[in-house]
Specification:
There is one protein chain. With 113 residues, the protein is an alpha/beta fold. It has 3 helices and 7 strands. The strands form 2 sheets. It has a 4-stranded mixed sheet. It has a 3-stranded mixed sheet with strand order 1-2-3, covered by helices on one side. The longest helix has 18 residues. The radius of gyration is 16 Å and the shape is elongated. The two termini are 17 Å apart. The C terminus is likely disordered.
Length: 113
């Protein structure tokens, strides 16, 4: 996986870069099966340090997304629905059932590919 890390008015040294790479795998690996690339922009706003992340979202049918999520034993999986092009999130509920949520607002963002 290709991970690009840069700072916005912030110096990203080797130690911070190493921490970001470790955390990236932990956070993104929870929700995405095999991310192909990512971009992290670190910026300082007031007393907060924020990170913005991008990743590629796979195009799948809901049934295929369910199978991928189940086989990888993931709690949730975000995907672009082939049927309508929108972004969907499938997740396992506390009662053991599954739910697919749709967000039309996110689907309009061109950066999600």
């Amino acid at each position: 996986m290709q991970l690009t890390i840069y700072g916005k008015q912030l110096d990203v040294g080797d130690a911070l870069r190493g921490d970001i790479e470790e955390q990236w795998q932990a956070v993104v690996g929870k929700y995405f099966e095999k991310p192909t690339d990512g971009h992290v922009t670190m910026s300082k706003k007031g007393a907060d340090i924020r990170a913005e992340m991008e990743t590629v979202i796979k195009k799948l049918m809901p049934g295929d997304a369910f199978v991928r999520m189940d086989l990888a034993n993931l709690p949730a999986l975000m995907f672009r629905n082939i049927s309508h092009g929108g972004i969907n999130m499938i997740y396992r509920r506390a009662d053991g059932n599954y739910r697919v949520g749709r967000s039309a607002r996110i689907a309009r963002w061109p950066s999600l590919g």
